[in-house]
Amino acid sequence: MKIMVTGANGQVGQCLIDRLKQTDLIWEAHGRATLDIADEHSVAEQLQRFKPDVLINAAAYTSVDKAEIEPEAASRANIKGPEVLARLCQTQGCALLHISTDYVFSGEAVSPYTPEDSVGPSGLYGLTKLEGERRIQEFCTRHVILRTAWVFSEHGNNFMKTMLRLARERDTLQVVDDQQGTPTYAGHIADALLVIAHRISQSSDSGTYGLYHFGGDKATTWCAFARYIIDQAKQKGLLTRSPVIRGITTDDFPTPAKRPSYSVLSSSLLQQRFGIMPSNWRQAVTDVLFVLAREQTEQLEANSKRFVG
């Protein structure tokens, strides 16, 4: 199986690369510098050259607040790009795996969202991601769209790393405590995508294609998530002290884009069809902290050698 990855510089993209390096698969990965997914000519050229069996699109415009003032940039990455990929994958006979988001929902539900539930995004980011889904559904027969939420990892910028940084700088942190969701480790998303890729490349069963959700195995709030991260980091020696974490309301922390108050995703359909379990985000936090602690130690050792030398 040959796999092409777009969005290689993002959290999921980097986790995919980490995993693909450990396989004997034929693969290549592209960031924005080597492939603009909204550039039809460039995408066609790369697909014709590499001829992948599966294209995993991890590229997206993910700045939720900036999307409100940069609608053209958000639309280019989240609508035009997926349409270009869908049309060309259809032409090339290549399956398309695409990552979407919980922001396609209104956040007014009281039970976990399933893929069949009605959508209703409240901001431009969610609107562009939803339209991107629709373009893929319209133009590419062999597609899997994977909605996920609250992504974190050892790579890039994310809520977990922000909390660790702020914990070193401040005595008190104020974190929103009235939004519920399912934290999801980017490495688990990468694992899920590769399982799906293997299945659809080996099977002609059209019933495996379609729309799925993949999230954490236990709902929480941003505040509770932050407390868990800080507590685990303190236990593992990444933090020498623990700041006081105070829960606040969404109204206390206004943002340009409205956040869903409830964005818990049900992963049951994905588990049923592919045997993929929801993301155990608590174990993943521990694993990420281990990686960050190792990187911190390596950096300290490198600095010590430089000064001694």
UniProtKB/TrEMBL annotation:
Pathway: Carbohydrate biosynthesis; dTDP-L-rhamnose biosynthesis. Its EC number is 1.1.1.133. Binds 1 Mg(2+) ion per monomer. The keyword Transcription does not apply. One of its GO terms (biological process) is dTDP-rhamnose biosynthetic process. Belongs to the dTDP-4-dehydrorhamnose reductase family. This is dTDP-4-dehydrorhamnose reductase. The lineage of its organism: Bacteria, Pseudomonadati, Pseudomonadota, Gammaproteobacteria, Pseudomonadales.
